[in-house]
Amino acid sequence: MTPSPNASNPELVAVAVVVGQHGLHGGLKLKPNSPNPLWIDMPLQTLWLQDVQPEAAAPNAQNEQQVQKQAFDVEKLELMGPNRIRAHLKTVRTRQQAEQWLHAQVLIRQSDFDASGEIDVTQLEGLEARITLPNGNQQPIGTVLGLSYAGALQFLELKVTQTGKTCLIPFNPHVVPTVNTAQGYLVLAHLEGFFD
User: Fold this and answer.
1) What is 14-76 written as a DSSP string?
2) What pLDDT, on the 0 to 100 scale, is given for residue 192?
3) What is the 8-class DSSP label of residue 127?
4) Distance of alpha carbon 81 from alpha carbon 37, whole angstroms
5) CA dist 178 → 69, 118, 159, 170 (Å)
6) Of 50, 187, 32, 184, the residue nearest 118 (C-alpha)
């Protein structure tokens, strides 16, 4: 999964999901939507937990979704390992309180997400891929089809215009130094012979 805007509040963005509790004092285990969650290094004061549960079925009525969303003051966020974060929230103090939020989405302010420098990978699909030539000019070479994962590594799926073939490019700052979603392109390092 990737970070995505929250439909009920466009100023919040979903960045993780609660996958379990940690310890006896209300710790939460989170699975981030991105293998490289830069937002955990931000001085976040507040995050939101949002759980969607079906309401009890009424006779002759369709089930509806009841959204439960609550803001929490952040005490501590720790990276536990690949794809795992431990969160301590000031008012979640027991195992039972933590368990009630199992499978809930974790939301943060869009402004905090943007300030972290993390890229919303949902906006990569369809971007024009360019390389910088030795003379400094940029040349379009293909289109981004999406993002795939191999463990903690991310790869761009790229359709090369000249050959029509699809290739995987490591998605990191060394290989993809520039991403400009506002103008619809990204720039790849010039990998000699890679796109021929």
Assistant:
1) EEEEEEEEETTTTEEEEEESSSS-GGGGS---EEEEEEEEEPPPPTT----EEEEEEEEEEEE
2) 64
3) P
4) 11
5) 35, 13, 18, 13
6) 32
User: How many angstroms separate the Cα of 94 from the Cα of each of 19, 25, 88?
Assistant: 16, 5, 11
**What pLDDT digit, counting tens, does each position of 116-126 carry?**
877 777 778 89
Q: 130 and 187 in contact (C-beta within 8 Å)?
A: yes
Structure tokens of 53?
Answer: 């549960």
Task: Give the pLDDT of residue 53.
Answer: 61
**Residue labelled with tokens 């463990």:** 151
**What does the alpha-carbon distance between residue 7 and residue 68 come to, in Å, rounded to a whole number?**
14
Once rounded to an integer, what is the mean pLDDT over residues 16-20? 93
Identify the residue with better confidence: 18 or 9. Answer: 18
Q: How far apart are CA 179 and CA 121, in angstroms?
A: 10
Beta bridge partners of 69: 50
Amino acid identity, position 56? A
> How far is the C-alpha of 150 from the C-alpha of 11, rounded, in Å?
31
